[in-house]
Amino acid sequence: MNARLRPQEVVDEVTALLRSRGERMTTPRLAVLRVLLERPGHLSAEQIVTAVAEAEPAVHRASVYRALEMLTQIDVVAHVHLGHGGTAYHLATPHQSAHLHAQCDDCGRVIDLPGDALEQASADIGRRTGFQLDPRHVALSGRCAECAASAG
User: Fold this and answer.
1) 85-94, 112-121, 137-146, range with the lowest pLDDT
2) Do 61 and 28 share a structural domain?
3) Quick one: pLDDT at residue 96?
4) Could you list the residue range(s) of the whole structural domain that residue 137 is in?
5) Which residues contact 147 (CB under 8 A, 6 or more apart)?
6) What's the DSSP call for residue 16?
7) Buried-most residue among 5, 10, 74, 85 (CB within 10 A)?
Protein backbone atom coordinates (compact mmCIF):
# COMPACT_ATOMS: atom_id res chain seq x y z
CA MET A 1 0.00 0.00 0.00
CA ASN A 2 1.39 3.41 -0.95
CA ALA A 3 1.91 5.66 2.09
CA ARG A 4 1.45 8.83 0.01
CA LEU A 5 -2.06 8.01 -1.17
CA ARG A 6 -5.04 10.02 -0.01
CA PRO A 7 -7.67 8.20 2.09
CA GLN A 8 -10.00 7.46 -0.84
CA GLU A 9 -7.07 6.15 -2.87
CA VAL A 10 -6.16 3.83 0.01
CA VAL A 11 -9.77 2.60 0.15
CA ASP A 12 -9.72 2.02 -3.62
CA GLU A 13 -6.40 0.18 -3.42
CA VAL A 14 -7.58 -2.06 -0.57
CA THR A 15 -10.87 -2.72 -2.40
CA ALA A 16 -8.90 -3.84 -5.46
CA LEU A 17 -6.67 -6.03 -3.30
CA LEU A 18 -9.68 -7.68 -1.68
CA ARG A 19 -11.30 -8.29 -5.08
CA SER A 20 -8.08 -9.82 -6.42
CA ARG A 21 -8.39 -12.37 -3.60
CA GLY A 22 -12.05 -13.11 -4.28
CA GLU A 23 -13.21 -10.97 -1.35
CA ARG A 24 -15.22 -7.77 -1.22
CA MET A 25 -15.11 -4.52 0.66
CA THR A 26 -17.80 -4.94 3.30
CA THR A 27 -19.22 -2.19 5.49
CA PRO A 28 -17.25 -3.40 8.55
CA ARG A 29 -13.98 -3.59 6.58
CA LEU A 30 -14.53 -0.12 5.18
CA ALA A 31 -15.41 1.25 8.62
CA VAL A 32 -12.26 -0.25 10.19
CA LEU A 33 -10.10 1.04 7.35
CA ARG A 34 -11.56 4.54 7.72
CA VAL A 35 -10.95 4.55 11.48
CA LEU A 36 -7.31 3.58 10.94
CA LEU A 37 -6.93 6.23 8.25
CA GLU A 38 -8.48 8.94 10.44
CA ARG A 39 -6.69 8.01 13.66
CA PRO A 40 -3.07 7.20 12.94
CA GLY A 41 -1.08 5.48 15.62
CA HIS A 42 -1.53 2.26 17.53
CA LEU A 43 -5.17 1.60 18.41
CA SER A 44 -6.53 -1.21 20.53
CA ALA A 45 -9.31 -3.39 19.15
CA GLU A 46 -11.66 -1.81 21.69
CA GLN A 47 -10.75 1.69 20.50
CA ILE A 48 -11.46 0.60 16.94
CA VAL A 49 -14.77 -1.03 17.95
CA THR A 50 -15.82 2.17 19.72
CA ALA A 51 -14.86 4.39 16.78
CA VAL A 52 -16.65 2.13 14.30
CA ALA A 53 -19.77 2.12 16.53
CA GLU A 54 -19.77 5.93 16.46
CA ALA A 55 -19.47 6.05 12.66
CA GLU A 56 -21.50 2.94 11.76
CA PRO A 57 -23.83 1.97 14.65
CA ALA A 58 -25.22 -1.02 12.74
CA VAL A 59 -21.82 -2.73 12.55
CA HIS A 60 -21.55 -5.42 15.24
CA ARG A 61 -18.36 -5.68 17.28
CA ALA A 62 -17.76 -9.25 16.08
CA SER A 63 -17.78 -7.92 12.52
CA VAL A 64 -15.10 -5.41 13.49
CA TYR A 65 -12.91 -8.21 14.84
CA ARG A 66 -13.44 -10.25 11.66
CA ALA A 67 -12.59 -7.19 9.56
CA LEU A 68 -9.38 -6.65 11.55
CA GLU A 69 -8.47 -10.29 11.04
CA MET A 70 -9.01 -10.13 7.27
CA LEU A 71 -7.19 -6.81 6.85
CA THR A 72 -4.28 -8.23 8.86
CA GLN A 73 -4.21 -11.40 6.73
CA ILE A 74 -3.84 -9.35 3.56
CA ASP A 75 -1.14 -7.14 5.14
CA VAL A 76 -3.18 -3.94 5.05
CA VAL A 77 -3.24 -3.78 8.85
CA ALA A 78 -0.40 -4.74 11.18
CA HIS A 79 -0.73 -5.70 14.82
CA VAL A 80 1.57 -5.74 17.81
CA HIS A 81 1.06 -7.57 21.09
CA LEU A 82 1.54 -5.20 24.00
CA GLY A 83 2.19 -5.90 27.65
CA HIS A 84 -0.61 -7.38 29.76
CA GLY A 85 -2.27 -9.11 26.80
CA GLY A 86 -3.32 -6.09 24.74
CA THR A 87 -3.02 -5.85 20.97
CA ALA A 88 -2.65 -2.65 18.97
CA TYR A 89 -3.39 -2.18 15.28
CA HIS A 90 -2.19 0.27 12.64
CA LEU A 91 -2.13 0.57 8.88
CA ALA A 92 0.76 -1.34 7.33
CA THR A 93 2.17 1.13 4.85
CA PRO A 94 5.51 0.36 3.20
CA HIS A 95 7.51 2.56 5.57
CA GLN A 96 5.67 1.21 8.62
CA SER A 97 5.56 -2.49 7.81
CA ALA A 98 9.22 -3.00 8.75
CA HIS A 99 9.22 -1.16 12.06
CA LEU A 100 9.35 -2.63 15.54
CA HIS A 101 7.62 -1.42 18.70
CA ALA A 102 8.45 -0.56 22.29
CA GLN A 103 5.95 0.18 25.07
CA CYS A 104 6.66 2.35 28.10
CA ASP A 105 6.01 0.48 31.34
CA ASP A 106 5.10 3.75 33.07
CA CYS A 107 2.81 5.67 30.69
CA GLY A 108 1.87 2.87 28.25
CA ARG A 109 2.93 4.85 25.18
CA VAL A 110 3.82 2.75 22.10
CA ILE A 111 6.92 3.92 20.26
CA ASP A 112 8.02 2.94 16.76
CA LEU A 113 11.55 1.59 16.49
CA PRO A 114 13.65 1.13 13.34
CA GLY A 115 12.97 -2.21 11.68
CA ASP A 116 16.61 -3.22 11.86
CA ALA A 117 17.04 -2.34 15.55
CA LEU A 118 17.32 -5.97 16.62
CA GLU A 119 19.13 -7.46 13.61
CA GLN A 120 22.42 -7.92 15.43
CA ALA A 121 20.75 -9.35 18.54
CA SER A 122 18.62 -11.64 16.36
CA ALA A 123 21.70 -12.93 14.53
CA ASP A 124 23.49 -13.49 17.85
CA ILE A 125 20.51 -15.39 19.28
CA GLY A 126 20.40 -17.52 16.14
CA ARG A 127 24.10 -18.34 16.34
CA ARG A 128 23.94 -19.19 20.04
CA THR A 129 20.69 -21.14 20.19
CA GLY A 130 19.41 -21.75 16.67
CA PHE A 131 16.27 -19.79 17.54
CA GLN A 132 14.98 -17.55 14.74
CA LEU A 133 13.71 -14.35 16.36
CA ASP A 134 10.70 -12.55 14.83
CA PRO A 135 10.13 -9.38 16.90
CA ARG A 136 7.65 -7.74 14.49
CA HIS A 137 4.48 -8.52 16.45
CA VAL A 138 5.68 -8.05 20.03
CA ALA A 139 6.52 -4.78 21.79
CA LEU A 140 9.69 -4.47 23.80
CA SER A 141 9.08 -3.10 27.28
CA GLY A 142 10.99 -0.39 29.06
CA ARG A 143 10.71 3.30 29.84
CA CYS A 144 10.21 6.12 27.29
CA ALA A 145 12.49 9.16 27.32
CA GLU A 146 9.88 11.39 28.99
CA CYS A 147 9.19 8.98 31.84
CA ALA A 148 12.88 8.27 32.31
CA ALA A 149 13.60 12.00 32.52
CA SER A 150 10.82 12.61 35.05
CA ALA A 151 11.99 9.66 37.18
CA GLY A 152 15.34 11.44 37.37
Assistant:
1) 85-94
2) yes
3) 47
4) 100-151
5) 104, 106, 107
6) H
7) 10
